[in-house]
Amino acid sequence: xxxxxxxxxxxxxxxxxxxxxxxxxxxxxxxxxxxxxxxxxxxxxxxxxxxxxxxxxxxxxxxxxxxxxxxxxxxxxxxxxxxxxxxxxxxxxxxxxxxxxxxxxxxxxxxxxxxxxxxxxxxxxxxxxxxxxxxxxxxxxxxxxxxxxxxxxxxxxxxxxxxxxxxxxxxxxxxxxxxxxxxxxxxxxxxxxxxxxxxxxxxxxxxxxxxxxxxxxxxxxxxxxxxxxxxxxxxxxxxxxxxxxxxxxxxxxxxxxxxxxxxxxxxxxxxxxxxxxxxxxxxxxxxxxxxxxxxxxxxxxxxxxxxxxxxxxxxxxxxxxxxxxxxxxxxxxxxxxxxxxxxxxxxxxxxxxxxxxxxxxxxxxxxxxxxxxxxxxxxxxxxxxxxxxxxxxxxxxxxxxxxxxxxxxxxxxxxxxxxxxxxxxxxxxxxxxxxxxxxxxxxxxxxxxxxxxxxxxxxxxxxxxxxxxxxxxxxxxxxxxxxxxxxxxxxxxxxxxxxxxxxxxxxxxxxxxxx
Length: 515
Prior knowledge:
Blueprint: H1 2-9, H2 11-29, H3 49-73, H4 92-118, H5 126-141, H6 146-164, H7 170-201, H8 206-213, H9 225-243, H10 252-258, H11 261-285, H12 300-318, H13 324-345, H14 352-376, H15 393-396, H16 398-412, H17 418-432, H18 436-462, H19 478-496, H20 499-509
Helix pairs in contact: 2-3, 2-5, 3-4, 3-5, 4-5, 4-11, 4-14, 4-19, 4-20, 5-6, 5-11, 6-7, 6-11, 7-9, 7-10, 9-11, 10-13, 11-13, 11-14, 12-13, 12-18, 13-14, 13-17, 13-18, 14-16, 14-17, 14-19, 14-20, 16-18, 17-18, 17-19
């Protein structure tokens, strides 16, 4: 019974891993689709993006179903789950992120199935890379030990580095190289900080580190406070890079713009959500002692300053962009600032962690939908890139424009959408924590962010393209359409009935961070 319960506890990871292996075999052993122009095809995955995209989505949605089943059974009811700690923590927190990451990854796979085929990017390795990166993200969300944290972080990151350079042109290679070099530097910071924590406390598990940090200043304690602070700064800095918080955000616009849009979508949702998951575990598992988590001497004031800087810098620069894709990249930086506000509020408010989780969930479906609608707006040779490319599309192609408008409105935080309640929850958590200045700054930034989202709507519905300007022509793809439909349904449902998932988010947010 214990063996079966242990297997069930890790079933979401097992399903995704086995699916990735089977997909690699299907890619390697399958026959390439014949080239339309009769050219010789040497890549066995050539022309099979559609079927590989569907296969990847099925695998990831199956992983999400198993994570949801784990949630319904209750991780606390599985006797074998405790045996996986501290290396992998099976709780409602990890199950919640398992569902969210599989949802975001599966929708990204559907976008890839339509986008790669339409734009002639016959790189079938995209889908195994996406699956393994999702597996790393899921493992990262449940990591309770620094060793697991680093292995999962690199598993996720290496796949994303490769996806960024998938086009193999100058811009994509430059973006991938920048992301790889800066990501390697951030990984080195995390690893060096982990080594210092082990040297200072004698533990690599987060619970053990937290217990040792709690002994600082007590008689007989040998834990050096200065070394712990330096190690904490290094580890948190490495994780803030993945979150794309200021000043660790410089890689984001180039990587987002150079990568194929489905890869950009995956980075924006899965990588960011997994990074926030492990950031919460590290802060509230290893560094929750009042001496390193107080407003006067701990990490909350530092993260508060970074949250303000992140949302403000992201919004200000996003408003100056002429590329819609680059605008969405900077807006994702601003959204990281809003989520960091919830992390800071969690030290004083019981609703802080739950607000971050709901915010990430709303952000996931809204961002997938926004990038999916941007994909749908342009076909090969007439891709939508700038604001001018979208001029008049609201009249020429109203359905596509309506879908894009819905997700932009949600990202802006306008009522009756999931994004509105995501931001509302974070601001209420800040008010409950008596962080009134941060709540006001966040609200002002939300108004500032609405400018560049509504600017897209102005171009789509109130502008016409110049006579000689190229016009974006929407593509047709069932997979992209399904991804947009699912995202739209969730944005509207959680916008109209946020309480339908409120209890689940609260339960996930109240789960212990380390064992």
